[in-house]
């Protein structure tokens, strides 16, 4: 499942038109990877369509040219190559985006989720990479594609957000080397950090206040969780991207080894986001019990509501794993 990046670069170089997409509810790595690759290929003279089923979250609209990202319904364009980034399963692209990519005779799957089955004709699934943005950077280097300032802004955002500002254990020496290369190229990383972390809307602080007031601590202080209800969403008038990173506040508690947020979805399902702070605790295995998955230290699932029942069911399974720790 590790098609050489040089081979993927050659496939992209041979294409005249390319469509690039990532998973529903995109985060920094998804948006940054899609646009980083798209802008580089455009600079190389390709016709490029960047697709996101759910559009760009409000916290990332500062990034260059994200207004060019297409959302459904898509026009009837023709493409030579389709690229799926940061998307663990084909279905996670979203129904309409998946159908749009199917127009291409070649699908390239580039990801870092270990459970990705390799649903493309070419697959580069590297579960040890901290961010797909890092893989895309290496791909562009391998193919000698343009690395403009706009491209670097997107890829830096992808890397810094998916590594938790370089705090996560998945961060490698190469991650820091890449950022050093970006700095040498003149990228203003301080400006990007301010835009990512220091320009939050008031409603995000209202969510943080609610979470701190309502969080549940159990299992002798080792599990912290919060139920994010539709009532609160309506009250605060939540927008996409507002909850990004909130779970890290739960994880910063000294005794906590696992943090979980349960979010009520419009369809009645409960979105579970979980994080581990102990390498021995594999939250992806817990999420897999409920049809989800992800990384060992960060994973998610969708569960049947109501939120109270889903919360207790998931936390019971998580507590069982936490008790196994010494």
TrEMBL record:
Superkingdom of source: Bacteria
Gene Ontology terms for molecular function: nucleic acid binding
Boundaries of every DHHA1 domain copy: 238-322
Record InterPro entries: DDH_dom (IPR001667), DHH_sf (IPR038763), DHHA1_dom (IPR003156), Oligoribo/pAp-PDE_c-di-AMP_PDE (IPR051319)
Domain DDH, residue spans: 18-159
PANTHER family according to UniProt: BIFUNCTIONAL OLIGORIBONUCLEASE AND PAP PHOSPHATASE NRNA (PTHR47618:SF1)
Protein name: Phosphoesterase RecJ domain-containing protein
Species per Swiss-Prot/TrEMBL record: Prosthecobacter debontii
Origin organism lineage: Bacteria, Pseudomonadati, Verrucomicrobiota, Verrucomicrobiia, Verrucomicrobiales
